Amino acid sequence: MSTAVLDDRPAPPDAQLLRARLRRPARVAVRILSALGVLWAAATFTFFVQSVLPGDRATLIINQDTGQTIERSAAELAPINERFGFDDSLVTQYGHYLTGLVQGDLGTSYRLKQPVTTIISEQIGPTLLLTFSALALAWIISIALTVATARRGRIASSVASGFEVVTAALPHYWLGVILLVVFAIDLQWFPVEGGTGFVGLVLPALTLAIPLAGFLGQVTREQFERTLDEPFVTSARARGMSDLGVRVKHALRHAVLPAITLSGWALGALFSGAVVVELVFARAGLGQVLVDAASARDIPLVSGVVMLVALVYVIANLIVDALYVVVDPRLGKAA
Amino acid sequence: MSTTTRRSAPVWPTEAPADLDRTLLRVEDLHVGFGDARDPTPVVKGVSFTLERGRCLAIVGESGSGKSVTARTIVGLTGGRSHVRAGRLELAGRDLRGLGDRGFRAIRGQDVGFILQDALVSLDPLRPVGREIAEALRLHGWGTRTSRHEKVVELLTQVGVPDAELVASQRPDELSGGLRQRALIASALALDPELVIADEPTTALDVTVQAQILELLEATKARGRTLILISHDLAVVSRMADDIAVMQGGEIVEQGDAREVLANPRHAYTRALLDAVPSEHSRGQRLSPGRDAAVSVIGSARAAAPDATVPVLEATDLVKRYRGPDGIERTVVDGVSFRLERGKTLGVVGESGSGKTTTARIALALTRPDGGEVLLDGEPWSGLKEKERRARRRQVSVIYQDPLSSFDPRWSVERILRDTLAPEAFADDAARGRRVGELLELVGLQDEHRHRRPLQLSGGQRQRVAIARALGPDPAVIVCDEPVSALDVSIQAQVLDLLEDLQRELGVSYLFISHDLGVIHHISDHVLVLSKGRVVEQGPADDVFRRPQEPYTQALLAAVPRLQRPGSRTAAAAD
Amino acid sequence: MSTATPTFSGGAPTPGAVASAAWSRVRTWRPGLVLAGLVLLFFVVAAAVPSLLASGSPTDIDLRGALRAPSLEHLLGTDQNGRDLYTRVVYGARESLLIGLGATALSTSIAVVLGVSAGLAGGIADAIINRFLEVLFSFPVLLLALLFVTVFGASATTQIVAVGIGTAPGYARLIRGQVIAVRDSGYVEAAGALGHSYARIVRRHVLPNAMRPLVVVVTLGVGQAIVWASGLAFLGLGVAPPSPEWGALLDAGKNYVQKAWWLEVMPGLAIVAFALSVTTLGRALQARLEGGTER
Fold first, then answer.
1. Are strands B509-514 and B345-349 parallel, antiparallel or unpaired?
2. Is residue A132, in this structure, part of any structural domain at all?
3. Ranges of H-type helices in chain C
4. What CA–CA distance (Å, rounded) separates B141 from B106?
5. What pLDDT is attached to residue B27?
């Protein structure tokens, strides 16, 4: 968006550029601190949501264990309150929660009576594998589609755009069921219940990757086409570069920038999508544990997972930042 | 193939077969259209010219004249939706018609070097410039990785880049405009092509840098290379062109020997273009053809003029500092003082980064100075609180360089103009409607433009709307911030004429900001030369421009490309 | 505004915004627009007067006709109790649409308040709101919804609140960006130079221009909200199964995927068809709005 009034500020001379470069460690420190700030705020938010739970938590836990819904006597509640520290003041509980977090303690599951950290670490492997394969797959699909079809005739480009828009709107559960029905039940190319092997990974990973590929593809294509209109592309062509050369050597680098930015956010979205996909394909992982915990109102376990995902998001974004500067070095000094 | 060869100018020059090896480029009856294959929109219509080795051809025209498209045809870069046909299209005896992308790729860079305007966007912003230059070498299989690097450093040194090794490793955004443009030229000259095409090579550059780049192109020509120079600026072209072709609406309306075309233009459009260039010679003359004093004075709501001896705007010792993104504070405006007399024009001229725009913003009280003060009619202005100032804001108006972004995209011209009228000055809605009509008439627009949105208007019409908006509050001062910089020269001429007419009829004062010394000299009574935030020189326009005292002003003036018109009518008349 | 700043605060554009931008490049395809209009009309009628579109009752049980594949008699097949799936989808439209609309209304209200105040206030207030949005962003929509369900129990209201809060930060950022872009625009400065008051400029320029993309975003958002809410229901954490709400149909059908695929595919198709037609219309609306100012 252009502004009517020009900026008068002069370009910094070389000595100042140099000084700006020296300040990079300081900027990294600020970035990490702000990431920690986000985590702290996320923890506070999670704690706050937990503490507004309607009704008494100890009663909930006993009723959950016994399958009843009745009032409990003080004698019955006392050991539970003692064990989970519900008698302490909110501030004390908050303090315990934060110190626990710092030590990697996410509390104890109401339902399974095990440390949340243990439960998560047992189940997270397949979920992470699924998430990252889906991210990689989405990148491959969207980039291949963009390079192959963007600005290559109206038909190819419209068909690919249409594909991207439609797939981006597909819910994971629906796409998963369709892939399952077609490729596992009907054609029997893949097992219905995948297990943890590579064959079992294909359909779930595709289910997660396709909508994301549609989404990333839209962003990548837009930037790609915009870059192809830039004068420097004409410049490169005027030097004798081929169309494919321009696409791969110049345009692609610009086009992946928004996709890189989105990947941090996408990782979080994929993680929650994985929960659904794991259920559709009856796949091992955090999904089933999390859904069971939510319906059993096992707050520590659910909020533990939420905190974990917040952590993944924050780390992913730190990596995204670093990666972005590698692809677009201009920001290394401007930021 | 159409046979309608249009030749509004004498056939130029007729080639004898013996000269064949001297002719590098031969274009006959070139047509280029865009869009639908059956019914393309024509952009170039039957252009013919020939270019001999070692000469420089300038193709001059305004935006939309088809000059860039003509040049791009030679390297086959008119784009996917274009349709090219020509009677002849030969480079060094080789027929370029029907050449595929592979064939053109061999020519690009190797036989023809192409320099686009504004290196900031013509070099890949993510890559070091050295790699862009090396790319030109690599694509044509030149040398090895190490030998290419050495060649890159050599090329950069050749185009006058100091510390070429360092510059090769830097990205365009780390370089100044001049260095960037040099790097771009180096990438086009890497394989020492026979023909060099430069499309507006100096447009975005400051005048001193522009002069250096032109020297560089002249040196290329001196080495025996052939040059095609595309430009909208006759002054830039007049310095080095051997031949000139003037394009308008996709046709060459006049072509021939440069001296001849400049001295005795035959076509009316060429004459209009030459007359439209504002300069020291054009002071007090109209730049655009048409009736004099287009303004019919329409009742102004202003009260009797206040004391004429008090300057309408007076600034003393203005200082403004900005903290950059790197945390370093820079003084952008440093002790600037000026007086703007009633009904006069004060021109503020300077290169980019000179602080002229910040000065304008302080005058408009949109930016608060860190030091110094601006008085309006001898009363406090910049020192007031915004609430107190609001009532007086109507006395100072503004015209921007880019009028489009200064209009609310949802609003029609009528609504934009109504918004400027003081509610108390008009009895009813009908009176306001009449006033809008008057304003439109004042700036030479028709009543039908009332209901259009600015997006639906041409660049010149938009700037007229901007002027009408500035006149709406009936101001004493209008701050004009590069008001004609984005306009074609003929439109620029009309707008400058309009501004002068309005000043004569309404007695309004202008604080006129521009980087263009010709424009400033043409329109200003007094001139302020700014450099790095300081006033270098000031005084009556003719004194400053004809007898500059300061070395900076002298250097600036020396760098200005001047229209070289041997024995021309206008130049003789002005002195 | 820069398109891609890799800072935390400049993180992800909202899916809705990206989708609408993408649609602008798929040329407005007339038959598609008509089809989308018809689909939407169908669902609106279904929500308002379901008996117009389906003659039977969504709760009629016919155990002998259970799990029949789609046929002329049962367009979308029957479920394990022999209930006609088409009838159930039609009757489920009302609750599904209400959940989608409710969540969108909630998220846009939050977004407008946060986005406008951050954009207009600037400075510290902006920084604080921006941080807050950043924190909300670190929770994926579905996980945030899961947390809400865990704490407050599964119900339509929880679905609305969870999806509403989950999708709000994206819209809030969009609005904040718009407000800032307009606030810093040339025409706002020009209005200031004319001596107009701050309130007048905000009223006449900033709000109308900043809210313009909201119409499109809200349209797209309704489709998205229904997709999110049904995802929650699919997990068994939304409206409970006897209800014909689309998400509940998905939940009920998920145990029969191998025997009766239509129980899962058909309600999902209703959701996808709705979401796509809303996207198409939102896009057309956007083209129209922009057409009014750009050509």
1. parallel
2. yes
3. 15-23, 30-48, 85-121, 123-137, 141-152, 156-183, 186-193, 198-201, 207-234, 246-253, 262-294
4. 11
5. 93
Q: Among all residues of chain B, which has the CA nearest to that of A7?
A: B357
Residue C76, in any domain of the structure: no
Say how far apart CA B180 and CA B174 lie, in whole Å.
9
% of residues, chain B, pLDDT over 90: 44
Residue of A nearest to B324 (CA): A9
Residue of C185, C193, C293 lying closest to B393 (CB–CB):
C193
B389, B394, B408: best mutation site toward chain C, by most C Cβ within 10 Å?
B408
The total number of structural domains that make up chain A: 2
CB–CB contact C143 A52 (8 Å): no
DSSP string, B122-184: HS-TTS-HHHHHHHHHHHTT-S-HHHHHHHHHHHHHHTT-TTHHHHHTS-GGGS-HHHHHHHH
Domain contains A109: no
Of B132, B173, B326, the CB nearest to A330: B173
Domain region containing B372: 313-574
Which chain C residues are closer than 8 Å to B366 by Cβ?
Answer: 189, 192-193
Instruction: Examine residue A186 and state whether it is found in any structural domain, yes or no.
Output: yes
- Residue C290 binned pLDDT confidence (cut-offs 50, 70, 90): low
Residue span of the structural domain in which C157 resides: 33-43+81-289
* Total structural domains within chain B: 2
pTM of the model: 0.81
Q: Does B68 touch chain A (CB under 8 A)?
A: no
Chain C positions touching B419 (Cβ under 8 A) are 191, 194, 196, 204
Q: Which residue has the higher pLDDT, B56 or C264?
A: B56
Low-confidence ranges of chain A (pLDDT < 50): 1-22, 334-335
Provide the number of CB pairs (under 8 Å) joining chain A to chain B.
130
Residue in chain A nearest C7 by alpha carbon: A321
- Per the structure, the complete domain to which residue A66 belongs is given by 12-102
User: Percent of chain C having pLDDT more than 90?
Assistant: 12
Q: Is residue B49 part of a domain?
A: no
Q: Which of B402, B408, B419 sits opposite C209 (nearest CB)?
A: B408
Of A12, A23, A254, the CB nearest to B126: A254
In a domain, B97, yes or no: no
Select from A180, A214, A138 the least CA-distant residue to C276: A214
Nearest chain C Cα distance for residue A320, angstroms = 7
Domain boundary pick from A102, A127, A154: A102
pLDDT number for residue A196:
64
Contact B116, A234 (CB under 8 A): yes
Residue that is last in its domain, among B170, B192, B214:
B192
Q: Do B420 and C185 touch (CB under 8 A)?
A: no
Q: Say if B462 falls within a structural domain.
A: yes
- Report the complex ipTM: 0.79
Q: Which residues from chain C sit within 8 angstroms of residue B407, using beta carbons?
A: 186-187, 190
Chain B residues with CB-CB distance to A333 below 8 A = 174
* Strand (E) or helix (H) holding B83: strand B82-85
Pairwise CA distance, residues A176 & C68, whole Å: 22
Please indicate if any CB of chain A lies within 8 Å of the CB of C202: no
Sign for the pseudo-dihedral over CA of C76, C80, C82, C84: negative
| Per-residue confidence band for B152, with pLDDT thresholds at 50, 70 and 90 | very high
Rounded to 5 degrees, φ, ψ at B346 are: -105, 115
Nearest CA in chain A to C183: A3
Residue-wise pLDDT for C151-198, tens only, equals: 888 788 888 998 898 888 888 988 998 899 899 888 999 999 988 989
Is the residue at B94 inside a domain?
A: no
C3 belongs to a structural domain? no
Q: How many domains does chain C have?
A: 1
Same domain, A183 and A146: yes
Q: Write down which residue in B146, B169, B192 finishes a domain.
A: B192
- The reply to whether residue C194 touches residue B402, judged by beta carbons under 8 angstroms, is no
- Whether C70 maps to a domain, the answer reads no
Q: Are B231 and B47 in contact (CB under 8 A)?
A: no
Q: Is the pLDDT of residue C19 over 70?
A: no
**pLDDT, tens digit, for every residue of B318-348?**
999 988 666 678 889 999 999 999 999 999 9
